[in-house]
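stuck on this one:
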Amino acid sequence: MNKKIILFLTIIFFTSGLFAQSDYKWTSSDSTGGPVYSWEDITSTGTLISMSGDDNNTGPHPIGFTFPFYGAEYTTFRISTNGWISFTSTSTVYNNQELPGTSSPEAMLAPFWDDLNFQSDKAYYYSDGSQLVITFNDVPRLGQESTSSYTFQVILSATGEIVYQYNTMTGPLNGATIGWQDDTRTQGTSIVYNYTNMR
């Protein structure tokens, strides 16, 4: 996946006389009328996250504004070396799963959940008060450090929109999960799960 792809998630609301429920829908830059890819380079302006090695999780880190996600509001995030962030989870789980799933981290955004390995500090974040960019920069897969390199990012908007962007994705792409799930682990979607929907 060396082509530039953006996954754009927007919240939708389902209502009835008895309850209101929120969920998300997604589109990509490959879709007709889809969003335009625009990589946000924050390697010189963002905060370098001190996190290296395998299967680590750090935080909380500031979002810079209040971010709404499935009816909850968050002001901080946590980040895993395995290609996902969460608003609450301290998990270090590396074996990607289908979402939603009760064994997966809660309140999770998974732009590229796989068994990755930070050999040095590889992640940055930058907030301007209305948008937060989190970049995984040149991260290899565990056991394939010399032949794989994945650079991707999550962008959160104060309006609740979520963007996943992919820059250079060198190496195997099968085996990853791309998706999200809520804090109850009952709502969410796997856009990609292992071989499903890989292009």
